[in-house]
Amino acid sequence: NILGDNVSEMRSGESTLRIGLVLPDVMGTYGDGGNALVLRQRALMRGIDAQIIAITLDDPVPESLDVYTLGGAEDYAQRLATRHLSRYPGLQRAAERGAPVLAICAAIQVLGHWYETSAGERVEGISMLDLTTSPQATRSIGELATRPVLDGLTQPLTGFENHRGGSTLGPDAAPLARVEHGTGNGVGDGTEGAVQGSVISTYMHGPALARNPELADLLLARATGVDSLAPLDLPEVTQLRRERLAAARR
Ligand code: GLN
Question: Which residues make Cβ contacts (< 8 Å) with residue 246, sequence separation at least 6?
């Protein structure tokens, strides 16, 4: 298949894995741009050439990249991002052809059907995810630890959450994980994140991929068209995970 051919080209340096960092100018408040850095680094460590392409409010969203990441944002910035993504539907088209998309926090809300801001305004989303989001009584801030339910993930997930919105999944979206500590989607069903087609979304900052290498490699494997990638032995990442999971469980 085409993706399979791409990975051998990438390995021989003839082609480059193109990682789209979507709207870091408005969805970069929480350091989630680190997810693109982690993808690039883990690709390079395996001899796969990789490059980050930042798409700002000045750019149309290209549909041809290999993998996309979107970060969290405050309410106003989130609205600007929503408008841009509806006007330039490159992300929607990329997901339709199966390109992996990682959407963090505000982005889970933007990719849904609609979200209500903390001021009570309802904003139409881009409907890539079958979910809606409404503000909850209190803001959820703190360490989050979950058990993944997505096929291909076996390790607990760790992240830092900071959101007021709570997301209710419809039948076409499946949860990413079940909450063990923290809030997650925050509507009382114990779920965290949403998965639909090639989109994986979560409330986990951290950045999420720095804390969860298994999730990073799942996205990389899908982006390069291989079944799985041999794990990398990085003691510092193991140590970070141990500390963060312990902090969530305290
Ligand atoms: N503004 C959204 C909320 O509070 C998302 C926040 C975020 O991305 N951290 O729910």
Answer: none
Condensed to tens digits (0 to 9), the pLDDT of residues 73-89 reads 999 999 999 999 999 99
Residue-wise pLDDT for 41-58, tens only, equals 999 999 999 999 999 999
Residues of 198-215 as b/e, b for ≥16 C-beta within 10 angstroms? Answer: bbbbbbbbbbbbbbbbbb
Nearest atom within ligand 1 for CA of residue 73: 8
Distance CA 240, CA 246 (A): 10
Percent of the chain with pLDDT over 90: 91
| Distance, CA of 186 to CA of 168 (rounded, Å) | 8
Could you tell me the distance, in angstroms and rounded to a whole number, from the CA of residue 34 to the centre of ligand 1?
Answer: 17
Which of 22, 78, 144, when mutated, tests ligand 1's pocket best, judged by the most ligand atoms within 8 Å of its CB? 78
- Give the neighbor-by-neighbor strand order of the sheet with 67-70: 50-55, 17-22, 67-70, 101-104, 199-202, 194-196
From the number of C-beta atoms within 10 Å of its C-beta (0-12, 13-18, 19+), residue 76 rates as exposed
Is 139 annotated as ligand-binding?
A: yes
Q: What is the reported pTM? A: 0.94
**Rg over CA atoms, the chain:** 17
What DSSP line would sit under 171-196, residue for residue?
TT-B-SEEEEES-TT-SSS-EE-EEE
Distance 249 CA to ligand 1 centre (A): 23
Pocket of ligand 1 (CB under 6 A): 30, 72-75, 78, 105-106, 162-165
